[in-house]
From TrEMBL:
Molecular function per GO: hydrolase activity, acting on ester bonds
The keyword Hydrolase is assigned to this record: yes
Gene3D superfamilies (alphabetical): alpha/beta hydrolase
Organism in which the protein naturally occurs: Caldibacillus debilis
Coiled-coil residue windows: none
A Pfam cross-reference name: Esterase
Protein name: Esterase
PANTHER family hit by this protein: SIDEROPHORE TRIACETYLFUSARININE C ESTERASE, SIDEROPHORE-DEGRADING ESTERASE (EUROFUNG)
């Protein structure tokens, strides 16, 4: 995360006109897990987070603790963050529970809308872990651009 904050963001901002209030972090699979980790530990780093088919199972216990601390923080401090969680329909049958974990996380976080966290879950019909990417990217761009 230090690389993103200290090197990547400043470099991009020096080359392109960036609206810092609309920064988005997108990740799929382990990248989706990373996006959730950043959301929970450094929520102000981005305005919008997109976690597609996040590999929550890979690091579930530490992520749940980070989630608990994040929720506690939100109860004390209002933020303005959008989160899109998504998974392919065909991921329902995978033993890693990618689809179920993403849906359950969305269900746990959705009640925090009053604290400034706006959560959406999208299941992509007929898509698996890899085939979900084109549909997810399309949805992610629209999701991040809506405000």
């Amino acid at each position: 995360m230090a690389f993103i904050e200290e090197e990547l963001k400043p470099e991009i901002e020096s080359e392109l006109p960036i609206d810092s209030g609309r920064r988005t972090l997108f990740g799929h699979s382990l990248g989706g897990l990373f996006a959730l980790h950043v959301l929970f530990t450094r929520p102000a780093a981005f305005r919008t987070y997109i976690a597609g088919s996040p590999s929550i199972h890979w690091n579930e216990r530490p992520l749940r603790e980070a989630e608990r601390q994040f929720v506690s923080r939100l109860e004390r401090e209002t933020l303005n963050i959008d989160l899109l969680l998504a998974a392919g329909e065909l991921e329902k049958s995978h033993p890693s529970r990618i689809n179920a974990n993403a849906r359950e996380l969305a269900e746990r976080l959705s009640p925090l809308a009053g604290c400034g966290l706006h959560v959406e879950f999208k299941e992509f019909e007929g898509e698996g872990h890899v085939s979900v990417l084109p549909a997810l990217i399309s949805r992610a761009v629209r999701f991040a651009s809506r405000r």
